[in-house]
Amino acid sequence: MAGFYFVRPSSLCRMQWFVCFLPSVLLVCGASLCPCERPELCQQIRPHRDFEVFVFDVGGKMWKSYDWSIVTTVATFGKYDAELMCFAHSKGARVVLKGDVPLTHIVDRDNRTAWIMEKVNLAKSQFMDGINLDIEQAVDEGSPEYQALTELVKETTEAFHREIPGSQVSFDVAWSPKCIDKRCYDYVSIANSCDLLFVMSYDEQSQILGDCIAMANAPINQTLNAYEQYLNLKIDPKKLVMGVPWYGYDYPCLNLSQEGICSITKVPFRGAPCSDAAGKQKAYSWIMKQVNSSLTGRLWDSKQQAPYFNYEDKNGQIHQVWFDDPESICSKANAVKSKGLRGIGMWNGNILDYSDEPVARQQTAAMWNALLGC
Ligand SMILES: *[C@@H]1O[C@H](CO)[C@@H](O)[C@H](O)[C@H]1NC(C)=O
Ligand SMILES: *[C@@H]1O[C@H](CO)[C@@H](O)[C@H](O)[C@H]1NC(C)=O
Ligand SMILES: *[C@@H]1O[C@H](CO)[C@@H](O)[C@H](O)[C@H]1NC(C)=O
Ligand SMILES: *[C@@H]1O[C@H](CO)[C@@H](O)[C@H](O)[C@H]1NC(C)=O
Predict the structure, then answer these.
(1) Most-buried pick from 176, 203, 218, 253 (CB within 10 A)?
(2) In 249-357, where does DSSP find H-type helix?
(3) Is ligand 1 within 6 A of the CB of residue 108?
(4) DSSP string across 77-107
(5) Ligand 4: centre distance to CA 19 (Å)
(6) Phi, psi at 343, each rounded to 5°
(7) If you measure from the C-alpha of residue 144 to the centroid of ligand 1, how many angstroms do you get, rounded to a whole number?
(8) Which residues belong to any copy of the GH18 domain (predicted)?
(9) For the CA atoms of 313, 315, 316, 318, what is the dihedral angle to 10 degrees?
(10) Atom 4 of ligand 1, residue of closest alpha carbon
(11) Residues labelled catalytic
C-alpha cells in the first residue's frame, strides 16, 4: 500500500513529502489521496440496489471484462487494485475488503476491537465500501469462539456503518446452516447483525456420508433445501445472496461402473469418511476446453440437475468432471427469484475465458446471463 502512494504521489503529497514520510501520519495523508482520475470516484457508494450481484475477484485484470451492467459488489480477495476501485465506483458498484482472522485471537475483546479498527482504517484509506467476512473455521456451539464470532460480526457491522456511511458488511456461510464442515455458528444472530449472508452453495460434497462416488458440486435439491433451512430459522430472505460455482471438480475414478458411476479415493474431512478433496477444483474455462476432447461429451444428470463428462488423461487414467454451466445455474437463479432472495453471486468472477475467441465470448456471456435466471 504505502509503496503505491510513493510511486504515484498526488501533488499534495509531493509538496508535503516529509509528512508522508512519517509512518505515523501516513494514513492521514493516504486518506486524502484519491488515486482515481476524478476525485468523486473515491466517494463510497451509498445507495442500495434491490438485486445484488456479488462477485468475488481474486486478482488480475479480468474484472475489465465483467458484466458491469449487473455487478453490484466486488469482494477483492486479490491484491488491492485502485483501478478496480475507481472503475467499480464509476459503475455504482461497491468494492469490499476481505476479512479473516483466527477466532482464537479475537475472543479477547481488545484484540477484536483492534482488528475491526484496523479493517475500518484500511477500508477508508483504500476508499472501499465495506468488508466481506470469510471466516470458514470450525466452531463448536457455545464455545468462546462461537460467542466471539457473533460479537465480531455485530461489532464489525456497527463500526463500518458508523465510520463509512452506506457501507456493506457481508458474511460467508456454508451451503446449509447445519454445522457443515463443523461450522456450528449462531447463524440467526449473525444474519440479523450484518447486511447479508453470502451462501456458498458449492463444495456440497465436502463431507460425503454415503457411497464414495463423484457427484455434483451443488446438486439442485440439496442446494435449494438448504435455503429452506435458512428461511426456517426466520432469516430474512433479503439477507441471503446465493453463491453459485463457476468451477467444477475433476475426480480420478478408481473404477467407472457400467452405469457411469465413478468411485473415488477416500479422503476424510471434518468427521466424514470421504470428501470432494479426492478431486481437484477446475475453472469453467478449463472445463469448457476439456469437454470437447472427452470420452462422453457433456452429459446431464437429471436428478442432480448438473452436467458432467468423463475423460481419459495421458496416463490412461479415467476422470469424471462435475461442473455448473448456464443450464444448471439457470434453475438456481430462478429459485433466487421465486424465494425472494437478495441476489446471486459466484466464486469466482475471474475463472471464465475472457479471451476474444468467438466461442469463449459466447460461453462467457451465457454464464453472466444465467445469473439472472431464464
Ligand atoms: C491478539 O492477537 C494477536 C495477533 O494479532 C495474537 O498473536 C494474540 O495471541 C492475541 N491475543 C489474545 C489474548 O488473544
Ligand atoms: C468396477 O466396476 C465394474 C463394472 O461395473 C464392477 O463389475 C466391479 O465390481 C467394480 N469394481 C470395484 C472394485 O468396485
Ligand atoms: C466444442 O464443441 C461444441 C459443439 O460441437 C462447439 O460448439 C464448440 O465451439 C467447441 N468448443 C471449443 C472450445 O472448441
Ligand atoms: C428433488 O425435488 C423434487 C421436487 O421437490 C422431487 O420431485 C424430486 O424427487 C427430488 N429429487 C431427488 C433426487 O431427491
Answers:
(1) 218
(2) 284-292, 326-338
(3) yes
(4) -SS--HHHHHHHHHTT-EEEEEE---GGGGS
(5) 65
(6) 165, -160
(7) 14
(8) 1-374
(9) -50
(10) 105
(11) 136
Please give the DSSP secondary-structure letter assigned to residue 48: P
In testing the pocket of ligand 4, which one of 220, 221, 224, 225 has its CB within 8 Å of the most ligand atoms? Answer: 221
Per the CB < 8 A criterion, the answer to whether 130 and 167 are in contact is yes
The CB of 255 under 6 Å from ligand 2? The reply is: yes
What is the rounded CA–CA span in Å between residue 331 and residue 126?
37
CA 299 to ligand 3 center in whole angstroms: 14
CA separation for the pair 220, 32 (Å, rounded): 48
- 199 has which bridge partners? 173, 242
Identify any residues that bridge with 345 across adjacent strands, giving them in sequence order.
Answer: 54, 243
> Distance of CA 230 to CAs 105, 111, 178, Å?
28, 31, 9
Question: What is the C-alpha to C-alpha distance for residues 78 and 41, in angstroms, rounded to an integer?
Answer: 21
Instruction: Report whether pLDDT(262) > 60.
Output: yes
Considering every ligand atom, which ligand is closest to the CA of 292? 3
Q: Is the pLDDT of residue 9 over 50?
A: no
- Residue whose CA is at the smallest distance from ligand 2 atom 6: 257
Place of cell 480477495: 77
Ligand 1: which residue has its CA nearest to atom 13? 108
In the chain, what percentage of residues exceed pLDDT 70? 91
Per DSSP, the three-state class of 144 is: helix
Output DSSP code: residue 208.
Answer: B
pLDDT tens readout for residues 202-240: 999 999 989 999 999 999 999 999 999 999 999 999 999
The Cα 118–Cα 152 span in angstroms is 13
Task: Give me ligand 2 centre to Cα 129, in Å.
Answer: 54
Ligand nearest to the CA of 361: 3
> Pocket residues for ligand 3 (CB within 6 Å)?
288-289, 292, 359
